[in-house]
Design brief:
Layout: E1 6-11, H1 17-30, E2 35-40, H2 46-54, E3 57-65, E4 68-69, H3 71-79, H4 81-86, E5 93-100, H5 107-120, E6 124-125, E7 153-156, H6 168-189
Parallel strand pairs: 1-2, 1-3, 3-5, 5-6, 5-7
Antiparallel strand pairs: 3-4
Helix pairs in contact: 1-6
């Protein structure tokens, strides 16, 4: 009998788009993992730090502001330094998701920041595991991974619209990431 899997989703959302993306990640992870926790890092509590410490996997999420993760997410990164010094998250699975207004929007740099953060904690990074979508004449903007990112889930949100207008493909891609990470955690625990 395998043990219960726990996935924590640590994210910051400035305008609600990344929170909606985090919810999609949660939905995907909840299809596999018994315990899934959404943690807004700008309001993190001691109980939520304990949930991160106990998780089998942590999925990090941030909007991309001026080519990198948000200042609120960076503050969370810096607050994790005590855990880094003790390597408390060593060998946990990690993954990431990001959002910006532009199709590119330097989201890759934000994902690289998240993966480097995970690497410094000696975590094992889980990539998106999808081929690029929407890259052929027969393809559709509704394909999974429509933005063609491998390192994590990326979303594009129009700057003049709220989170309710997020692209269905981007939310489905985020859900895929959550499910994939939980599946990898379950596989490793078996």
């Amino acid at each position: 009998m395998s043990r219960e899997i726990s996935v924590a989703i640590a994210y910051h959302s400035g305008y609600g788009h990344t929170a909606r993306q985090a919810e999609a990640v949660r939905q995907g992870a909840a299809e596999v993992a018994e315990n899934v926790h959404l943690i807004a890092v700008d309001e993190i509590t001691d109980e939520q730090w304990a949930q991160l410490d106990a998780a089998d996997a942590i999925i990090f999420g941030s909007p991309t502001y001026l080519g990198d993760v948000s200042a609120a997410f960076r503050a969370f990164v810096e607050k994790s330094s005590g855990r880094w010094m003790k390597q408390e998250w060593k060998d946990k699975l990690a993954a990431g998701f990001v959002n910006s207004g532009a199709k590119s929007g330097d989201k890759l740099h934000s994902l690289q920041s998240l993966s480097l953060f995970a690497a410094q904690h000696s975590m094992t990074w889980v990539n998106l595991g999808l081929l690029p979508g929407w890259n052929k004449s027969t393809a559709s903007e509704f394909d999974l991974n429509r933005l063609g990112v491998w390192l994590g889930a990326a979303a594009q949100s129009n700057g003049d619209q709220g989170a309710e207008a997020m692209h269905k493909s981007d939310l489905a891609t985020a859900e895929h990431l959550g499910r994939r990470v939980a599946e990898q955690a379950k596989r490793l625990s078996a």
